[in-house]
Every structure is written in structure tokens, then in C-alpha cells.
Amino acid sequence: MSSPAPENLTFDFIIVGGGTAGCVLANRLTEDRDVRVLLLEAGGEASSIWIRMPLAMGKLFTHPKLNWGYYTEPESKLNNRTIFWPRGKVLGGSSSINGSAYIRGQIQDYDGWQRLGNTGWGWYDLLPYFGKLERRENADGTYDSESGMLSVSYPRYVHPIARAFIQAAVAAGLPQCSDLAGNSPAGVGLMPYSVKRGVRNSAAEAFLRPARHRENLVVQTSAFARRILLQNRKAVGVEYERGGALHKAAARREVVLTAGAIASPQLLMLSGIGPAAHLKQHGVSVAADLPGVGENLHDHVSTSCAYRTAPKDSLNAQLRGLRVLKHALVYFLAKQGPLTNGASQASAFARGLPDAPCPDLQIVFRAMSHVYDKTGRITPDPIPRVTGGVAYVRPKSRGRLSLKSADPHQPPAMNANYLSDPRDEDGLLAGVKWVRRIFETEPLKSMILAEDLPGSDCRTDDDLRDYLHRTGSTFCHPSGTCRMGPDALAVVDERLRVRGVESLRVIDASIMPALPSCGPAPAVFVIAEKGADLIKADWKAGAPSTQSVAVVSAVSP
Q: Which of the following is catalytic: 247, 298, 370, 477?
């Protein structure tokens, strides 16, 4: 349950956003019993039964109360379509609604962050944090590592066609990988999950729940942050709505934004921290001219191929009608069966572009397919099909997030600028060809009756490029809008302090200079673990300083 409204609204730290990073920070900062922490979350408690069931993420992706349900602006390279961006509106954030995939990424991903001037953010700097947070569960229920708080496991249920996919990918030229959750995954294997013995292990479950009893932690749900309170270029608190009233909470030490790649830059701009001309355009008084706020928006562009099978070779029929009720009973009684799976049962990492320094494609296999019903909700496809999804996971295209107005309840304008860099389109094209190659290889080939998407009429590169423009979408990983770095367009420094504003940090997916070559959830956990250590170290050494930036006004709006 949410904590009652505290009589004393002064805290050492205020964490804005109860998602993945916020839950980790709430736990780690309150390990010091002399530190008082307020965690604000705009959504509610993570109490829905659908959150616990990994395969129920299809319901959560369009859930009106648990999902912000954002849309991009029309994407010019995707035939001016708007792309749906589900984001968790609940404790645990997107870790409470996502597909539960857990893959660390490539060594080159994090070493790339360090090469951009972010000292201490290379692979071997972050490796101890991966080890600290992970509790690795084997298929038999035993553990390789029991010290971490987040369970990492492999599927309890594997459909035979998923194993055929792995065998076909090996026959098509990819190495078999026994641990995609390990260092620098390459090749094909079963998908690792953040699932604990059949139950989703979200950040709220793994990190926040064990800390809820601490007297020095106050958690406020349904608390919508409106702005950061500033005095003389220093963050001193947060203004937020809750229960129909406006509240203000004061921070003795720091305000920490963990609201994600969409809400964190929006909140900065609404507070007068961002591109000066843009803020003035919307009537927001400028406290600090930070032109990089909202820039560097990027995402993993993707598409899907759908293949028809015999009914026994697809889970679609098992997830409809009376059959799904049987599986639900097995799930609730024994935590077994297909409902224990995340979004995908198997995954492959391959090279698409010849100059790629590491795998730049992620292919995911699902022993099912979905359609949207008349209400817009995701539902199992009535036709027996399986899906091969593919994303270009080292995107070069960069977009922008900006305000539409000074109204905090109006979502910002988001344009990922998908496929604006031709290399992204070339990479995704190579990804579709990899998917086709695998599905045309035994033992998978003989289980496929037809390729429904892109379809047999789509053969030339021009045909496939047209298909990408018509169907290109997202693996739902928007990131990078408060980029970390030493240059003028960087929003935070390597200690995650907002440049030019004292006592304010951003610690979430928005600080990534570039996405890891996989889903970013493990990286966000690590960013939060390291961020907590940075905060503790800075305050142990004395109040942290800030980075210089041109300041237009020292008064908040």
C-alpha cells in the first residue's frame, strides 16, 4: 500500500519516478537509516495479477491504468505513421509491464559510453554491478548466484518449435549460445528472463518490496510531479499533485529524476531546465539553458515476419477460449506452463552490416502471434502462426523530444526519426533476410506452411524496403534524452549530475549516450546501482558540486 501523506514533507532525497531505477535507488539509499527518502510515483501499486504472470504482458501493453500509452509524432520514414510506445504507469515502471527479457548487452556497448568521455562507465567498470544485482536461477530451480536481488532465469516451458528455431539458426550459421545473459552474447539460445520461479520479478518486487517496511522510506503512489522547485540554481524540492490537491516536498540533499526517457526531460523543461528558446516559446521561465535536454532520442527500430503452422506448432489456440483457462489454472497452482514465459522464448544475435563491431541484430522467436481486437487490445491470433521479430540494435538515427505546451499533463512531442540514417534501414533489411534464412532451414522449414508476412510476393530488396516502411515499429526502448557526457549537449556528467543545477541528478534510461545492443532493462538496473553508489560517495565526501553551464535565470517558474 502507498504510504500515508507524511506530516513532515522534508526529506534528504526525493526520487521522482517509481520505475526500474527509482525502485533500486529507494532500496539502496534507505540502507542508511539516517537518510530519509520520498519516492513519488504517478501510477499505482503493482498489485494486478496480470503483472505477476509473465505472458500477460499483452494485456499490460494496452492497459489504460497501468500504461501511459504514448504515441510518437508521425514518423516520415515509416509512411508518416505514429508509433505506439507503451510505458509503465505503476510501481516498477516498465519492468512491471515489459516482456521480461534480461540480456546485459555487448562489451562494445559500454566501452563505447566510456570512449565518449564517460569515465567509469566501461564494461569492466559496470560488470561488478551486474554481478551485484543478479540472482541467477537455473532451469532446475537451483541458483548459480544467490547474492543478488533480481532473479534471472531461463524458460520453464519451451515449445518444441522454439527448439526447432534454435536448431535451424545454428544450421543457418549462427553459433549456439548457452547463456545469452552472460558477457557479450552472440548466436542463438533460449531467452533469459527477469522471472523468479514463474513469476515476474519486477524492480518493484525485487528491490522496493524488501524496503517498504523501512521507516525512513515514504512511498507516494498516484503522485504526479509537476515541476522541480529551484532556488539559486539549486534543486530544493518537488511540486506534485495527489488526491486532488497540490503538494510540495523539500529535499535537504538532492532531487533525483528516475521518471524515464520521456518524463525526465519533460519535467526538466517544465522546470525551466532545457533549450532556452524552446522553453520561452512555451512561456516557461528559463533557469538553466541546457540545449541537450530532449535531444538524442533513439530507439530500436524493428519489424516482424509471421509464419503459418499446423495448430500444434503454434501456441495461439492454447491462449484462447477454454484452453487458456486450463493453462491459467496450471499457472496459479504450480507456476508451470506457457504463461510462465516472457514475450519470446528464444533469441539470436547476428551481424547485419559488414562493418559492425559486434552483433547489430536481435532476432526474437515467439511460438505465437497476436492481433488487435475492435477495442485496440492485443489478443491471440485465431490463425496458427509463429513470429520472427527483428530489431536493428545499434541505431544511428537520432530524434528529439520537445514540449507541446507548458501543461504537465500533455505528453511531449516525440519523434524518434526512425530510419533517417540509411544504415539503420540497411541493417533492418539484413535482419529480415536473416529471419527468412532461419525459417527456410531445417528442422524449422518443414514445420512452416507459409510465410504470411512479408509474404511470398515480397522478394526484391525494394519490396522489402517498402515492407519496412509500411510495418516498421519498435522494440519499445526509447532512450537517451538526457545524455551523459562531457560536451556542451550533454545533460548530465559522468556522476549523473545535471549540468549547471546543484543537487539534481537524472538516473534512468534517458542518460544513455547510446542504447545497448539488446533490451535496456538490465542497463537501467546497473545505472541505478552505480548511481546509488555515486550519490553515497559524493555525500560521504561532502556535498557534491555541479558542472558549469550558461545560466539565463536563477529563479524557477
A: 477
